Amino acid sequence: MSIRTRLILIFSICLLLASGSISLIVFFSARESAQSDFHALASSQLERVEEHIRTFIEPGAMSVKYLAGLDLVRNSRGKLTSYLGTTETTTLFYANHPPYERRIYDEFIRIHDSNDNFGLVFMANDDGQYAQAPEGHIKAPGYDPRKRPWYSDVMNGKSDVVLSAPYLTTGGGMVCSIMVRTFDMEGRPLGMLGVDYSLASMTKDLHARRILKTGYLVVFDANGRIITDGRHPEYVPMEPEEYPELRRRMAREPDGAYDSVGSRGIAEYIVTRTMAATGWKIAVIFDRSELTASSYVLLRTIVYASVVVLLLAFAIISFSARRIVHPILELVEASSIISSGEYETSETVRARLHEKLSVTGQGESRQLSEALNSMVDTLQERIEAALAASRAKSEFLSNMSHEMRTPMNAIIGMTAIARSSDDAEKKDYCLDRIRDASAHLLGVINDILDMSKIEANKFELSSTEFDFEAMLRKVLDIVGYRAKEKRQDLSAHVDEKIPPLYGDDQRLAQVVANLLSNAVKFTPEGGRVRLEAKLAKEEDGVCTILVEITDTGIGITEEQQARLFHTFEQADSGISRKFGGTGLGLPISKRIVELMGGAIWADSEPGEGSTFSFTAQVRRDRSTAAERGEGDAGEETKEGPDRFEGCRILLAEDVEINREVVIALLEPTGVSIDCAENGAEAVRLFTASPDRYDLIFMDLQMPEMDGYEATRRIRASGTEKGARIPIVAMTANVFREDIEKCLAAGMNDHVGKPLDMGEVMERLRKYLASRSCPQA
Question: Which of 146-155, 240-249, 349-358, 529-538 has the lowest mean pLDDT?
């Protein structure tokens, strides 16, 4: 046998063995990956199903909580129908009953009619009295609701909302009862209130759900009874022992993933999850054959491809073995190194790979060598870029977690200290720390929101007339306390040539505050921070402002400077952990100055301090502000009084604690406040007495009727007061599009949450200072 033949034979056998080994490795890896993917898919589906069930049940829970909180219900002790003394079968009819019971019935009917899934709405007091809607449900003689299992389940329950076990109605529909305890106006137990909730549409949707080709859902209640079974629609709620063994096992097994054999003898893969809110268990079941199908397809593909490659290689080697055997062997070894992935982490392996790829061949061998070289270079670049991006985002998420958890820890801790202390001075100290931590947390949130708007290309600027030096003084007042704590020399010089400007002073102040805060942060105690602002150029009414902030801090290397203004990156993660910060301030500042037609840059040497500079183009356009009437009106509004006795405000706010905050903040001003818990109530209060109110603070997102619709109805009320009363949005919706939507609905102004007392007082001066308020 010739050497050529032996080489061909050896090469063929080696190639065959290598292909087979790779095929098996890839097959088992693919199968393991497929199982992991199936488990992840099943878990994701279970989370969606849980959310779907929770969302489906939520209207019932919200409705009974709403009813239980009504004064009408809380005052109902001794005012409902009792069956304890009846001697014959009774049907509820409210026509001849007292008006109080009729009002409760009407409220129940309104809730009943509000949702197609709602059945009977009912209430039982602890003295045996009972109310229900709709009419027509028959009760046996001497009916005592307190002896019903559902009554004791609710009264003995540990959670606010009790969900009964699902059951079948006489018509075959699946229903459960959602119930809550009720309390009177003094907080004493009064009884319970509930609504029968049809599960038909939910079970129909769950029954129809399919995951991939074979997956289906099974849902059990807290007692192990089947609510829906995607493969066995005939299963209904009955005692667990009546179900097949597999279904009983699924109901009692701990949550997780396991293999089983179904009733048809087919291997199955099962993943289960228990809902915390209801105690129901959800399971998704696949045929295991589907799990491994893709792996076998991949194996067949690899085998076929290997055979084709083997035959092609045999033909090529047979034709010109002497010229190409060696280069091909080298390239095959290089390919093995590439497929192993070892070259990504080992310098020695990378050197060996480049040696193999440097072989000189002819024709296809040379092209293959060049292609593999190019592929390796590209892969290495992408790997390094992906690793760098992954590290940057991981560090960013870690920093964000730290920056948000730190003030939250302070808020929670100081709240606990304040609650446990009787020392007024200590309480004041805790409240000051809570305020500072809340402000820091709000700053982090604002940075995240700003960055999200930048990423979505929705970051915009506003325009107003402002004094540049006054704006800087406000920033220096904010940053100065930290410099004072570190005994730093903080100074500023403003060019007298800078005229009154017209632009976005808040965003400009945000850039200055970011740079000044960084300078103070990274400058040691006793150091120096200096700000200098000057008019660099003025042309056609546009002023170019140059601001330079110099510190004697730790300095920055050239490599770190190259990453300063990149999103999700900070100069150095170790330094960031020492000094804190989200890493978003500089990228946001860069976007702001670019929108203002300017630029931002840094000059620094390690250990020698840093100078951060930026330019911004702002209009010198006082005439535009005068035409809009901003100048005089603003001054007049700012010189208004701080007390407004005799003025009455209508506050529309659905969250009780927010109402308490507004009332407490405005109490020193002398105003009187009426509260509405939703838009509909606000409309009713206003239309009942339009001349009673001088200003309306309107929340936007409220139940029953939102702030936009309430504003439109007040404006369309047909009264002179309704057309001209000031309506100010008081909401956490603070984006420009939110403000524009408020104005479009007929509101006059906007105040963002969390509330800034200075901003609130500005609105009071603006709308109440010149009004002659009637005595409240």
Answer: 349-358
